[in-house]
Amino acid sequence: MQESVRFWDKVAQKYAKSAISDMPSYEHKLEVSRRYFTPDSHLLELGCGTGSTALLHAPYVAHILATDISANMLNIARQKAADQQISNVSFVQGNCDQLNPKMPLDAVLALNLLHLVDDRAAVIRDAYRWLKPGGVFITSTACLGDSAWRYIKWVAPLGRLLRLMPPVFVFTQAAFEQSLKEAGFEIDYLWRPEKFPSVFIVAKKPA
Among candidates 47, 44, 67, which has minimal Cα distance to 57? Predict the structure, then answer.
């Protein structure tokens, strides 16, 4: 994990200044996610980065616990929250297996994260455990095994060696959906934009 921490700490400032590559898709994901929120909702976001998505969702929920492994990312997120005078988002540093969130939660978000963790099944199981019955696990995940991007598995070791890339794991959309179902989730919404490897899924814990 320390390799990933060093990478994201190093690129935090550059990451904070980078533009979203596909704004219409991002806004669609925000809108769909909010269909599952209420003013009383308590959320957990894993891998929140500089907090942009958590802060955009904040007006629609009671509280968000936003977590990341990178202290530098979280420092930027906290400053953004202060600048925007948003007080219902808490930022905490920690890996998924180090967290002990107050349960049960209404939603767990893992956006652009699960292809960067070495045991996505464990993260999915934790999300299931943390959610209340009827709660949702909202993910946007690069399923690189389905596209030309699958060749990244040959490039990634060199990128990691040169410290140009974090660890990246290649799997298909079918394998990802199966891992959600094996954890007990039911897929409530699925959408994949054209020309992009990421699939957006809202998986529900049965009531």
Answer: 44
Q: Please give the angle made by the CA atoms of 198, 193 and 53, to the nearest 5 degrees.
A: 60
Give dist(CA 18, CA 52) in Å, integer: 12
Q: How far, in Å, CA of 138 to CA of 195, rounded?
A: 21
| Pure H helices in 47-172 | 52-57, 71-83, 120-130, 152-161
Which of the 8 DSSP states describes residue 137? E
144 token code pair: 């690189």
Q: What is the pTM of this model?
A: 0.89
Residue that has been written with the tokens 């904070």 in this structure:
16
pLDDT exceeds 50 at position 160: no
CB 15 within 8 A of CB 50: yes
Where does 56-170 show beta strands of DSSP type E? 63-68, 89-93, 105-111, 131-142
Q: Could you give phi then psi for residue 22, rounded to 5 degrees?
A: -140, 80
Q: Whose CA is closest to 74, among 104, 99, 97, 45?
A: 45
Contact 93, 67 (CB under 8 A): yes
Residue-wise pLDDT for 48-73, tens only, equals: 999 999 999 999 999 999 999 999 99
Give yes or no for a contact between 5 and 69, defined as CB atoms under 8 angstroms apart. Answer: yes
Mean pLDDT of 196-200: 87
Total residues belonging to the chain: 207
Query: First vs last Cα of the chain: how many Å apart?
Result: 34
